Amino acid sequence: MTQPTILCDLSPHRPDPRTLLLYDRLDGRRRELDGLRPLAPDQAADLKRLYDLDLTYNSNAIEGSTLTYAETRVILEQGITVAGKPLREHLEVINHKEAIDFIEELAARGGGPMRESDLLSVHSLILRGIDPKNAGRYRTVPVGVRQGDGEIRHFCDPLQVPLAMRAFLDWLGENGNHPVQKASEAHLHLVSIHPFIDGNGRTARLLMNLMLIQAGFPPAVVLVKRRLHYIEALESAQGGGERGPFLALIGAALDDSLTLYLDALGRGTRYL
Question: How many of the other CB atoms lie within 10 Å of CB of 145?
Fold first, then answer.
């Protein structure tokens, strides 16, 4: 029996009223944050250190890493190898941190949406030393996933991946939609194409955060404790399904980040 295929639906989508109200709140809090900028050097260093750790730990844990938050911190801040943990997991921490640095450089450079070469560079960093054959390269084999309903869904045919990615990159350059919606849907569309053999989720979350940073927001951290909700929301949204839960989840994660930033800048809270 032919199994259904996950499609990348680039058609316009209007969020529900609740999500639109959330975007209004996020815009207001971003304006409040703008009024507290620029960051003092020690504040900027604190927040970067915290988000490097939070993004790296949670993104890798969502993909199955067994490293704890404390172990991830030791690797990032002290360069210490954790006994009994696979080399791959150590490399995932180091690589993800360097990929964060890279997207921050892209954001500082300006110049519009991410180019294909930059996207491939992000992916290459994520898989560096882990899978050299596939790092920074589109997949050439079919892939599928068993979803929560038990069905195996197949992603984009490998022969169609380059064409699908060209359409996706063109879509990134189009105006319209709230920037948080655009960043959230960029994440959704990229994982729906699933252009890489591995590292799709991490690449998609980094792309999303690049777009949020470019729009003046802090990064949004999808927490591993929300992994089930996150996966269910992704599955619901793929192939033209209901996007509301996914947009709301990303919006809530961004709202949490704004709270942390406003606390740090408005009250002088230090994050050690």
Answer: 15
CATH architecture of the domain covering 17-35+42-264: Orthogonal Bundle (1.10)
- 90, 96, 123, 194: which one is catalytic? 194
The tens digit of pLDDT for each residue in 92-115 reads 999 999 999 999 999 999 878 889
Residue closest to 249 by CA, chosen among 236, 239, 259: 236
Give the max Cα distance, the chain: 60
What does the pLDDT look like over 246-255, one tens digit per residue? Answer: 999 999 999 9
Q: Do 212 and 180 contact (CB within 8 A), yes or no?
A: yes
Q: What pTM was estimated for this model as a whole?
A: 0.95
Arithmetic mean of pLDDT over the chain = 92
What gap in Å lies between CA 95 and CA 101, rounded to an integer? 10
Cβ–Cβ < 8 Å for 155, 192? yes
**In whole angstroms, what is the distance from residue 218 CA to residue 84 CA?**
34
The verdict on whether 154 is a catalytic residue reads no
- Which pLDDT tens digit goes with each residue over 150-174? 788 889 999 999 999 999 999 999 9
